[in-house]
Amino acid sequence: MPMIYCVEDDDGIRELISCALKSGGFEVRSFPKARLFRKRDSRA
What we know:
By secondary structure, the protein is an alpha+beta fold. It is built from two helices and two strands, in the order E-H-E-H. It has one domain. Strands 1-2 form a two-stranded parallel sheet. The chain is flat. The relative contact order is 0.28.
């Protein structure tokens, strides 16, 4: 199943979206800032 990325600065909303997607069977990664999302694959 494809990965869904959620970028949301509100902790509660981000958790709500992530939980709803996970309960639907999706794989989810969430980030509080776009900057962190963009750096997700550049970590060494």
